[in-house]
Amino acid sequence: MINVNSKNMGGFIMKLLSNVMEQVIKKNPNEPEFHQAVREVLESLEIVAENNPEYLKAGIFERIVEPERQVIFRVPWVDDNGKVQVNRGFRVQFNSAIGPYKGGLRFHPSVSLGIIKFLGFEQIFKNSLTGLPMGGGKGGSDFDPKGKSDGEIMRFCQSFMTELCRHIGPDTDVPAGDIGVGGREIGYMYGMYRKIKNEFTGTLTGKGLTWGGSLARTQATGYGLCYFMEEAMQAIKGKSFKGTTVVISGSGNVAIYATEKAQELGAKVVALSDSNGYIYDPDGIKLDTVKQIKEVERKRIKEYVNYHPNAQYTEGCSGIWTIKCDVALPCATQNELDGNAAKILVENGCFAVGEGANMPSTPEAIEIFQKNGVVFGPAKAANAGGVATSGLEMCQNSMRYSWTFEEVDAKIKQIMIDIFKNTSAAAKKYGFENNLVAGANIAGFLKVADAMMAQGV
Predict the structure, then answer these.
(1) CATH code at 81?
(2) What would the pLDDT profile of 199-215 be if each residue is shown by its tens digit?
(3) 138 labelled catalytic
(4) pTM listed for this prediction
């Protein structure tokens, strides 16, 4: 364990990091998600700053919270009625100290600069934890793909890429998908990028298998979440998914494949949700039905009860955490699991929580989990399987070669196991044993900070 320096030094560090936080709030007003993400990381790094004064001298903390570049642009497009619509596009290139910017594109009405900055900041540390040479970035638009025709989505994506293409490239910035951006949207954007640039390179990940995509990319985040949590539960509690009851929020890509892998590992998944409400199936979720509803028909999760009358559908999402379970995997969106939900989960005997979405647990919820000895897998570690596989897709594109599903899956599993081991080791070294939030922040930060130190100001 690292030795902590004098109390005077500790007070100085706290004041300095507090000043960094104050500047973040002052420079980025009305962006609570970004403030929350930065505060959580800085709180973990106080002891790191005490033991590495060279980071203070080099202004690493002030620099790492400021994006290297922020791009905001207009996205005009024409709907099926011939009416011109205008959305706003974003790309925040946060840190490229260890590799080209890497991070998804999110299409959702809630997208704003603050949301993109929070996601991009988290991405720095998540990408660092994978061990692959990828910097942190994020982007998207307030465009809502729900209810839009394929033609409307194509025209929007083409307009979006007309501007974005100026700022990305295989050695500069490699976007991927996120909420609202799947294979269809990646295809339309990549087609426009290829036309404008007159080149076929690995500039986007999440591509189709016949034109540069990677096997297992669809499954990667959900599978990776379960690989990480299986390792964490075994190491900390001596438990596993086998024989457990699991509640998973969401019913998109991450939730579906977390369900698939949890079931393979012997768990019974009993609940899934979408933005309208949640389903509870005491007999266990029938995944084939969910895939048909969400991946083929693109309908709401409430359709599930039409196939399985024993299941129950409830309007509203928050009640999903009242279902008794051993393991909870929030895989929907940020801040979906609050303090009240955390208390109910603990009271109902939940012993492990793994974040499949980005920052789905509020600070109050995390504190409750940690105080009650719940194994808590933070998003930047637990859901890194998706971006890790994006990195593997970049590798395959560079080699002009494709690995088998089994090869990619084995690499994802090893990466997630290594992330847990490095996160756990960093936590223990700095006096936070079994605190995987602190461990992930510290392990992710150190690699980036050292690279920034080596490259000068």
Answers:
(1) 3.40.50.10860
(2) 999 999 999 999 999 99
(3) yes
(4) 0.91
